[in-house]
Amino acid sequence: MQAYQPCHEPFVRYCSALAHGKMDAQDLVQDVLLSAFQRFEAIRKKDELLHYLIRAAKNRAASAWRTNKRSADLCEKQAARLQARGATAEMLLDVEILYATLERLPTDQRDALLLFEVSGLSMAEIAAIQGTNENAMKTRVSRARASVRELLGSPVLQRPNAALNAFKTLML
């Protein structure tokens, strides 16, 4: 639990963003944490627990997506959870549009953007997770932001940082 404590917030944020509309984020978090707890002794680099958790969540989510389709009930459940956190109908619509846009990004760019903007990890941490260097991460995040801006193309979201800040607030 001591090793997990500093990882909690960025890990939960990443799982919330990763699972939206596809699976329950709480189930994803719990499945990955249970698996990590059971295999904790086998994890070689305990100081990189967050990296392990993020890779495990990504793999677990990919496996679940292969067998499941987007569920209307799940989307309603997630919308209710966001409304309980103070989301308005406009914010929920913006979140849905942003998720649909993020799905159109290449996987590496989407993950880099989610890890940086939503989870709040540093470029160095993301580079370690994705197995590349910090400059490549800066490029990925920059390209992801530009792609989101281009794909959205609306005047409201010409300020992607404001949209992402609202998104991050809801993912807490």
Q: Short description, anyone?
A:
The protein is mostly helical.
How would you describe what is shown here?
- This protein has two domains: 5-67, no CATH class; 72-171, Orthogonal Bundle (Arc Repressor Mutant, subunit A).
- It is 72% helix and 0% strand.
- It has helices spanning 8-19, 25-38, 49-67, 72-84, 89-103, 107-118, 123-130, 134-152, 160-171.
- α1 (8-19) packs across α2 (25-38) and α1 packs across α6.
- It is globular.
- The mean pLDDT is 77.
Give keywords.
globular, 72% helix, 2 domains, 172 residues, Arc Repressor Mutant, subunit A, mainly alpha
What characterizes the major β-sheet? none
The rounded distance between the terminal residues' Cα atoms is 20 Å
Give the overall shape, derived from the CA principal axes: globular
Q: Assign the CATH topology of the largest domain.
A: Arc Repressor Mutant, subunit A
Number of domains: 2
Point out poorly predicted stretches.
none
Report the CATH architecture of the largest domain. Orthogonal Bundle
